[in-house]
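Possible regression after last week's pipeline update?

I re-ran a chain I had predicted before the update to compare outputs. Posting the input and the new output here so someone can diff against the archived version. Not blocking, just want to make sure nothing changed silently.
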Amino acid sequence: MFRFKQFTVCDERSAMKIGTDGVLIGAWADVEGDWRILDVGTGTGLIALMLAQRNASAKIVGIDISHEAVEEARDNFSRSPWATRLSAIEGDVCGFEGSEKFDHIVSNPPYFIDSLHSPDKLRTMARHTSSLKFEDLVASAARLLKPEGRLSVILPTECAMQFRFAAFGRLWLSRQLDVVTKEDDTPRRTLMEFCLSDKPLMPTVTTLTMRHRDSSYTEEYRRLTEEFYISLR
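New output (post-update):
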């Protein structure tokens, strides 16, 4: 069980374990003013829980194709202070029809494209694009978002441009954060926010460095995650 400042998360049943990617997108996605949020590939429910902590009004739905993940997310939600605003649905977002459109969709999506599949079927579903292609996530977002609604994702930097190509003509990139693991390294992760808009947008692009050369955490990474981590060592 992982303990954060305001909630706990178990990840025994979900194929994807608690990791830095989920924390990054959960802390970075701009959910101020959002009323309805969809977490695609919710897994343990970590991102949904972080968004519920950051937005005291939003109702958040997590969706996942894995029965085990959904059951675990429901358990994690029920133990949290925001159980009445959190729900988890088992299913494929490509066939999901919400009763209302969403203000924001957030996802830590599958990204392995040409690599070998894992012998673990659940882990393959969680991390290989055969379970959710970039184009399918974009199409689902365009269908499920309100006008001017947003899609936020985190991907390995080498996959970011491919996702932008998939979004071209449907969603406009509005913000991008390139994440450097350690000073002087090249970015390893890229977070992107897209907007469902008829008007072209000029994106803001920034960089976040997580660790100094001596492996200590940078102040900017501490500020981003300080609401959640009990301690950073």
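Follow-up from reviewer: compared with the archived run. The radius of gyration is 17 Å. Marking as no regression found.
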